[in-house]
Amino acid sequence: MSSALLRTSTTARSALRVAAATSSSKVGLAGLSFTRGKVTLPDLPYDYGALEPYISGKIMELHHKAHHQTYVNSYNQASAQMHEAQQHHNTPAILSLQPLLNFHGGGHLNHSLFWENLSPTSVSGGSPPTGALLAALTSTFGSLQNFTSTFNTALASIQGSGWAWLVREKATGNIGIKTYANQDPVIGPYEPLLGIDAWEHAYYLQYQNRKAEYFKAVWEVVNWRKVEERFGKK
Q1: How many alpha carbons lie under 13 Å from residue 90 in its C-beta half-sphere?
Q2: How far is CA 27 from its chain centroid?
Q3: pTM of the shown model
Q4: Distance CA 227, CA 178 (A)
Q5: Residue 37 to residue 223: CA distance in whole angstroms
Q6: CA–CA gap between residue 152 and residue 171 (Å, rounded)
Q7: Which of 82, 162, 150, 160 is nearest to 114 (CA)?
Q8: Quick check: 2 and 140 in contact, CB under 8 A?
Q9: Is 208 left (phi over 0), alpha (psi -120 to 50) or beta?
Q10: Cα–Cα distance between 234 and 223 in angstroms, integer?
Q11: Tens digit of each residue's pLDDT (9 = 90 or more) over 200-230
């Protein structure tokens, strides 16, 4: 498998159109569901301060209760507006709402996965990957250290706000690193395995402009057991 560094395409910006249009479907992902176009804020599987000293409790509280909640509220509002626009066949309104659904729905999906990506050090957070996942990382990147270094380089390359993800290509099973702008979700030919939030709200209260320190520290609380679980699903 190659270790190519992949980047997102602009087609991801229309990612959640279907979620808004399907009023009775349920899509299970990261402990969340879309039901009648509504989403809810997931509970964290750990206390806000459980990731200290690597990520402060204050950051986690604001990130979860304020930022993620805003994505949930805004997605639900846009979803309801989309339903009304579709009922009235209001094409201009439908088109204007699609970017909002993608942004806020993507923010909800990305953060729901992100919380699961993390775990306190007392509960295996930071413990290195094993088994098939470690073998795939070693085959693709040469070593786990090379992978984290390449991943951090991808994070640092993001201009403005965005995410870096370890993804698997559905057609080939190959893994790679892919960056996404803003809140664009991992969709289409790829499935997300591990994502790191590079938005300032994920680190600024603690690390200020030293985001490279955050990129280094976050690996101390990465939940590789959850990543292994995702990788094991075919």
Answers
A1: 12
A2: 16
A3: 0.84
A4: 16
A5: 30
A6: 26
A7: 162
A8: yes
A9: left
A10: 20
A11: 999 999 999 999 999 999 999 999 999 999 9
Cα(130)–Cα(137) distance, rounded to whole angstroms? Answer: 10
**Which pair of tokens denotes residue 212?**
């490279």
C-alpha distances out from residue 94 to 91, 108, 134, 145, 146, Å: 5, 20, 44, 46, 44
Residue 233, pLDDT score: 87
Would you mind telling me the total number of residues written for the chain in this entry? 234
- Return phi, psi of residue 216, to 5°: -75, -40
- SS3 assignment, position 166: strand
Question: Which helix (H) or strand (E) segment is 104 a member of?
Answer: helix 91-117
Characterise 39 by phi-psi region: left (phi > 0), alpha (psi -120 to 50), beta (else).
beta
| Residue 91 contacts residue 195 (beta carbons within 8 Å) | no
For 12, 137, 144, 176, 234, the CA distances from 172, given in Å and listed in that order, are: 20, 15, 21, 11, 11
CA 46 from centre of chain: 18
Neighbours of 192 (CB within 10 A): 24
Share of the chain above pLDDT 90, in %: 83
Q: Is 135 left (phi over 0), alpha (psi -120 to 50) or beta?
A: alpha
2 to 101, 109, 152, 164: CA distances (angstroms)? 34, 27, 18, 18
Q: What is the DSSP letter of 160?
A: S
Estimate to the nearest angstrom the gap between the alpha carbon of 32 and the chain centroid. Answer: 13
Q: 108 or 15, which is more confident? A: 108
Cα 127 to Cα 114: distance, rounded to the nearest angstrom: 17
